[in-house]
Every structure is written in C-alpha cells, then in structure tokens.
Design goal:
Helix content: 10-25%
CATH topology: Alpha-Beta Plaits
Number of strands: 6
CATH class: Alpha Beta
CATH architecture: 2-Layer Sandwich
Radius of gyration: 15 Å
Length: 113
C-alpha cells in the first residue's frame, strides 16, 4: 500500500482527475494549499489574476493505492498535470503502514477499495 501525494497547478485539477478516473482510481482527497518551489518569485496567472510573491496557490492530492495501482496513478497525474513549464509540481510516494475503513473496520489493502 502506498500514499501518493501530488502538488499540482490549480488549473490542472480537472485534467488530473479525468486521467485518474480513466485509470480506475476514484478515491482522492483534494486540498487547496499555498507554497513555492524553485519558481519562487515567478509571476503566475490564476483565473486571470496575476499572482506574485513567496506563496502561490497549489492543489494537493492525496491518493491511497494498492501497489498495483501505483504506476497508473503516477502516470495519470503526470499526464494530466504536465505543461513542461517550471511549477508543474511534484509527486511524493510514501509507504503506508495501515489503512482502516471506519464503517466496516476492514484493514489493509481491502480497506483502500
């Protein structure tokens, strides 16, 4: 079991979700976050508004997957989020020790779905 955390551009969320759904990955958590990477100080446009400064709007995706879905998840995120420009984002993959479905108390890969 893995936990995939991706930081992407806000305007790429729908494309990434579409790619994940095509890969049969339907369970995601989405958060709006602020941050910067190497592009700090680079001006971005978000919904037509120019943004500058240290912290830029980003989207954080958290996706728990069984091992067989790891590569499809990574490929889907890259396909949906990639523009080839600085600031496209990052993907982090963490080992997940346990998962518990609260409703049924199932554990492990069964609980992920």
């Amino acid at each position: 079991m893995k936990l995939v955390i991706a930081i992407i551009q806000p305007d790429k969320l729908e494309e990434v979700k579409d790619e994940l759904y095509r890969s049969e990955i339907n369970l995601i958590t989405v958060s709006e976050v602020l941050g910067h990477g190497r592009q700090k100080g680079v001006t971005e446009f978000y919904r037509g508004a120019k943004e500058t400064g240290n912290l830029l709007r980003k989207i954080r995706l958290e996706i728990a997957v069984n091992d067989t879905f790891l590569e499809p998840a990574i490929k889907a995120i890259v396909t949906g989020a990639k523009t080839g420009e600085t600031g496209d984002g990052k993907i982090f993959v963490l080992d997940m020790k346990e998962c518990v479905r609260i409703r049924t108390e199932e554990r492990g890969s069964t609980a992920i779905g």
